[in-house]
Amino acid sequence: MLPFQKKLSNTFYAIVSLPATAVGFSFSTQVAVLSWILSTQYHLHIEDVALVWLAGPVSGIIMQPLVGMISDKNWFWGGRRKPFIVMGGVLGTLMLLGLLKMDAISRILGMHSVFIVAVVVALLLDLSINVTFNPARSIIADVTPTGAERTKAYSWMQVMSGSFSIGAYFISIAFGNLVLIYVAAILVFIFSIVPLFFITEPRELQAADAGHLAEKISFGKTVKTLCPLYGFILYGLFVVINKMILADAWAPYQTKVMYACLVLTLLLGIYVIIAGKKKASLDNEFQKLLLAHSFTWLGLQSMFVMCFFYVQQKIVPGLDTNKIFANIFSTFFSGKVQGVESSAGNILSLGFLILNFVGVLLPVFVLEPCTRKIGKVKTYLLALLCLVAGYAFLYMWGAAEINFYIGMLLCGIGWSAVISIVFAIMSEKVEAVNMGWYMGLFNFSIVFPSMMTVGVSKIVSQSKDPSSLFLIAFLCLLLSVVFWLFVKEPGKG
């Protein structure tokens, strides 16, 4: 073990955050590029784009818990988490490059449509993210003690990841999305491999609660733990069967099924909260986290998938492309005159640059000190309320370019907590010896809500008003805040 790891120095926090940064940079590249490239380069419809995005959640269903369980119980290539970080990084690099050649791949395979190739490339890209996601976050918990040090570690993770995410959107605006893809491929490869030479993983993981005997993981325990997500899981199964087996034969029932599954989720949420009131337990606390985080991610993923279409249809029409602020910014750096197609991509990238800029500044300098004074859960709730306010602002006034940036700034406050503090909270509410498995299950609160964006895209498309995207996101985040009110501070009874 190197000295900076023993001392838990800031340098160590930065280095151990790089694998998670690779995941974040890859995801930011997806947000900036995927909807844009599928819409403008390969001419896919909004609902087809939503289906391509569905590839990620589908791969996450399998890979997250599987990688978590394997990495908890096995040791090879010098670590528990390291092998999966390497494999995910290499696959991610290859699939990022594959985004550029989907039409060529389609021709080589003799396919008339690029849609299937787009789904496969997106699936493998998200597979790489899912393989890396769990170990990259678990390794941080493995090498830091519970409490302030771990909160600081996850705050540093967000600073590093957010900083490079800002770089991703800056590259997108200044040099174009094609350059961004090449840069992403290089950085994902480097950040997934080089840091592992400087990190020593512990051979043994000890439970945070010495008096608590870790339960043996089983299929029954997994099913029981996922109880709050049954509604989302049912909808995910509906989508997979309908789209991949029945060729969309159930399409007329899609919206009704989504509403029914949401009602089921709310009822199960109430059940979990009442059960926690009667008998507190680690499992119940984890279930409340799953419940609250699932609605957060439904709102966020809806924005990631459909925000490009909102910008394209609501902000760009009627604007002089020479006076669009994002285009002025882009032309200054690239020297190229921006057209209508690139304008939407530039506005989107600048908006997400602002969101991630706020996400970089807050965790270490504001959120982490705040957690020491009022606790992690209260700090998280306050940040989440800013996300609620951001969505409300975007719904009412986001159609103006400058207002769009203001709304994204507000959303950035919540985003900074979603990808930093929440992991510190979760990691202190579960058994350390099963951290990878819990990380995998926690990802289900991201995966299955993400699959529901297929239904959300249907509603937004049918409404003929792209602003409805932010109304839906606002309602999702409002529900998330309500459920977070029942989550206890880590370490309290």
Q: Can you describe this structure?
A:
The protein has 21 helices and no strands. The protein is an all-alpha fold. The protein has one domain: Growth Hormone, Chain: A. The longest helix is centred in the C-terminal third of the chain and has 35 residues. The chain is globular and about 55 Å long. The protein starts with a helix and ends in a 9-residue tail after the last helix. About 1% of the residues have low confidence.
Condensed summary:
The protein is an all-alpha fold and 493 residues long. It contains 21 helices and no strands.
Report the biggest beta sheet as strand number plus sense, adding barrel if it closes. Answer: none
- The CATH homologous superfamily is named MFS general substrate transporter like domains
Rg over CA atoms: 21 Å
| CATH fold group | Growth Hormone, Chain: A
Subunit arrangement of the protein: single chain
Count of domains: 1
State the total count of DSSP E strands. 0
Helix content: over 70%
Succession of helices and strands: HHHHHHHHHHHHHHHHHHHHH
| Average predicted confidence as pLDDT | 86
